[in-house]
Design brief:
Elements (H helix, E strand, L loop, with lengths): L4 H14 L5 H8 L3 H7 L3 H23 L6 H12 L3 H8 L12 H19 L9 H20 L8 H11 L8
Helix pairs in contact: 1-2, 1-4, 1-6, 4-5, 4-7, 5-7, 5-9, 6-8, 7-8, 8-9
């Protein structure tokens, strides 16, 4: 019987998003395969996490493409991106917590490409006068990632309605938490 690798990865992502400490036995059960079959496709947890990383990068780049970041006002481009990335936000939240993915010489260059695209959006907003200039594009990019991960966890735990995901993230990132005086 042929194993659908993509299905295995998506099952692993769904489980690890909810339970990051899941064992490979639990991952195999979630995917509906044996531990031996899982091991034939992924030599161990590190290989599985690296495959999930590749899937996460693919999902993120597809969301960036679909969001058309160069079109229209920055707020709208950011809203499109957050809405597009929402289905993969749980996987990205899991990957965000996997420190070994972002350390050392084996860091996947896909993350660098994604960072550059997100930072370019924030830089465009600063240059157009839409965004404040006292926060670096790199920091705004990191803040976006943190909000995406927090939003994904909050939805998974039932503390945030899925329909509010995009609004909450974009509003907090762009508006901050300070109450503004009404004119």
């Amino acid at each position: 019987m042929a194993v659908d690798r993509d299905l295995v990865l998506r099952s692993a992502a769904a489980l690890l998003t909810r339970k990051s400490t899941a064992t490979l036995d639990e991952v195999a059960r979630a995917a509906g395969i044996s531990r031996a079959t899982l091991h034939r496709h992924f030599a161990g947890r590190d290989a599985l996490v690296r495959a999930l990383e590749a899937l996460g990068i693919e999902e993120c780049e597809a969301a960036l493409d679909a969001a058309r970041l160069d079109e229209g006002p920055v707020r709208e481009a950011l809203q499109r991106f957050v809405a597009e990335i929402e289905p993969a936000a749980g996987l990205l939240a899991f990957l965000y917590s996997e420190n070994q993915l972002f350390e050392g010489e084996q860091q996947n260059e896909g993350w660098t490409r994604i960072d550059a695209r997100a930072a370019a959006l924030f830089r465009r907003g600063q240059e157009s006068g839409e965004l404040r200039i006292d926060l670096s594009p790199a920091w705004l990019t990191e803040a976006l990632y943190g909000l995406l991960a927090s939003g994904a966890w909050a939805v998974l735990e039932g503390r945030l309605a899925p329909k509010d995901f995009t609004y909450m993230i974009v509003e907090l990132l762009l508006g901050g938490v300070l109450r503004r005086e009404q004119p």
